[in-house]
Amino acid sequence: MKISLCIITLNEEVNLRRCLTSVALVVDEIIVVDSGSTDGTEGVAREFGVRWVHQDWLGFVAQKNYALSLANYDWILSLDADEALSVDLFSELLSVKEVRFPEGIMGFSFPRCVLYEGKWIRRGDWYPDRLVRLFKNGTGKFAGGKVHERLELEGTVQELEGELEHHSFLDAADHWARCETYARLWAEMKFEEGQRAHRLDGPIHAAIRWARGYLFRGGFLDGAQGWQIARLNSREVNLKYQLLRQMNIAARA
Fold first, then answer.
1. Residue 72 sits in a domain of what CATH number?
2. At a CB cut-off of 8 Å and minimum separation 6, what does 193 contact?
3. Contact, 137 vs 71, CB < 8 A?
4. In whole angstroms, what is the distance from residue 114 CA to residue 27 CA?
5. pLDDT exceeds cutoff 80 at 146
């Protein structure tokens, strides 16, 4: 099994070296599709002998699918720059490369674990967040709207147990800034689809999200970080519906 690593970047100097270091001995080629970085992203990438390709931003789905189209090998590993293989996942992927799997196996999934303010989060809404990231070339593509794209795969998926480490947020301020961005993109997408939001949609959905993550999925066991994650996730949900309702009202004016 030969593996092409596909990554999209924009100003990922801080994260990219960690990601590529974790995976360099597993993959057989590295493709980085960059949309215009102005920091040292390209310099870091070239340290690892990557194939560097510039592509103006197409949106998450189209940008990632473009990166997949450049892969030369039969298997593709698609990662984000702020992700890295854990030691266990690294070992599992090395083993996978040496094993002949049944013809029906077209992809492999693994759990993703977020490092949040110094703590690995293994409860609540964010875990296990199992994702298919290693798959047979030509069988998978990214789909979705403006946010939270997911890989769609044709064929059977084999589950691996090693974790994909996600170094997503610098701090609570960075977390909330991204929540605001995702909320706006979600509201724009739903507005374009013709969805309407009512006055109580935000508070109701926010309360459900908080209870699900903090209480029913054990987020409270993650201590202060678990509380903060549940609180900000709930605020994001409320904001999504507020923004959508504002768009609905403006359209009727």
1. 3.90.550.10
2. none
3. yes
4. 23
5. no
Give Rg (Cα) of the chain. Answer: 19
| CA–CA dist 12, 152 (Å, integer) | 26
Structure tokens at 98: 């040496």
3-state per-residue secondary structure call for 168-208: CCCCHHHHHHHHHHHHHHHHHHHHHCCCCCCCCHHHHHHHH
How does pLDDT run across 6-30, given as a tens digit for each residue?
Answer: 999 999 999 999 999 999 999 999 9
Neighbours of 209 (CB within 10 A): 18
Q: Name the token pair of 36.
A: 């215009």
Residues 25 and 130 in one domain: yes
Token pair in block for residue 145: 């709207």
User: How far is 55 from 33, CA to CA, in rounded Å?
Assistant: 6
pLDDT tens, position by position, 203-221:
999 999 999 999 999 999 9
In 3D space, the residue among 111, 149, 116, 115 whose CA is nearest the CA of residue 129 turns out to be 111
Q: Which of 117, 151, 166 is the last residue of a domain?
A: 166
Asked if residue 56 and residue 97 are part of one domain, the reply reads: yes
The span from the CA of 132 to the CA of 124, in Å, is 20
Listed as own residue / partner, the contacts of 129-134 with beta carbons closer than 8 Å and 24 or more positions apart are: 130/159, 131/164, 132/107, 132/108, 132/157, 133/77, 133/78, 133/79, 133/108, 133/109, 133/164, 134/3, 134/75, 134/76, 134/77, 134/93, 134/96, 134/107, 134/108, 134/110
Q: What is the pTM of this model?
A: 0.90
